């Protein structure tokens, strides 16, 4: 008994069919063949199965479009934050190129997936919509369309410089007898990070390592000073 006939029979029933109905329609179908055929169809995402409280299974055919969409979403889910190149999606799903592009646009419009350009290869890479792409792929918060966003970098450095300067002035007002505020009171990387998060300066996540990069630029430009206490850097402007 061919799986095509089984699939066509199931597809003809919009609400699905039970195991009993399948065996009634195909009396020559053995249990072994049934298990092998349905397993293959399920693996190929051409079939879905539900089970009621009595343990009765109902089989329902997936449309070709739904099947392809499921293949794409499963592939992206497996890739996690690394994403999958367009060419790899095509090779791994065997979906015709023009139809694949149509499906990808549809999934993007439905906010199920999103595309980014890989920093190193300039290839379009797809990830699930709720996944933040790996920084190896995108280049991190400083990059927009593979180019360093200098406006963002400069604006953030100005914000950090002003924050550090304001903290120094605030501490100095409370300690008027000190020419230089007590070092341990000066802001650290963590203080700078918390400030950016609390004030919602950015619409994307930024790491302490990325803030360190900005603070180092300010330090080497001579705009801030750095003091270390027990391994922690404190900043002064």
From TrEMBL:
Keywords: DNA-directed RNA polymerase, Nucleus, Transcription. InterPro entries: RNA_pol_Rpc34, RNA_pol_Rpc34-like, WH-like_DNA-bd_sf, WH_DNA-bd_sf. SUPFAM superfamilies: Winged helix' DNA-binding domain (SSF46785). It comes from the Eukaryota. GO terms for biological process: transcription by RNA polymerase III. Gene3D superfamilies: Winged helix-like DNA-binding domain superfamily/Winged helix DNA-binding domain. This is POLR3F. Belongs to the eukaryotic RPC34/RPC39 RNA polymerase subunit family. GO terms for cellular component: RNA polymerase III complex. The keyword Ligase does not apply. Its main location: nucleus. The keyword Isomerase does not apply. It is found in: Nucleus.
């Amino acid at each position: 008994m061919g799986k095509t006939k089984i699939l066509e029979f199931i597809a003809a029933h919009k609400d699905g069919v039970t195991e009993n109905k399948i065996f009634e329609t195909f009396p020559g179908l053995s249990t072994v063949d049934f298990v092998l055929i349905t397993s293959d169809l399920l693996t190929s995402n051409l079939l879905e199965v539900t089970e009621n409280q009595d343990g009765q299974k109902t089989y329902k055919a997936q449309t070709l479009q739904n099947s392809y969409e499921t293949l794409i979403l499963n592939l992206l889910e497996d890739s996690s934050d690394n994403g999958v190149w367009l060419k790899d999606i095509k090779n791994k799903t065997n979906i015709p190129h023009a139809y694949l592009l149509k499906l990808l646009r549809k999934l993007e419009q439905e906010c199920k997936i999103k595309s980014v350009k890989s920093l190193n290869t300039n290839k379009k890479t797809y990830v699930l919509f709720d996944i933040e792409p790996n920084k190896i792929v995108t280049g991190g918060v400083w990059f927009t369309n593979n180019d360093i966003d200098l406006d963002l970098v400069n604006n953030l450095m100005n914000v950090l410089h002003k924050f550090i300067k304001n903290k120094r002035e605030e501490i100095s007002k409370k300690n008027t007898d000190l020419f230089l505020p007590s070092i341990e009171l000066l802001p650290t990387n963590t203080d700078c990070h918390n400030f950016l998060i609390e004030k919602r300066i950015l619409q994307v996540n930024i790491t302490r390592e990325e803030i360190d990069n900005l603070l180092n630029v300010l330090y080497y430009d001579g705009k801030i000073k750095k003091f270390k206490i027990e391994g922690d850097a404190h900043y002064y402007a």
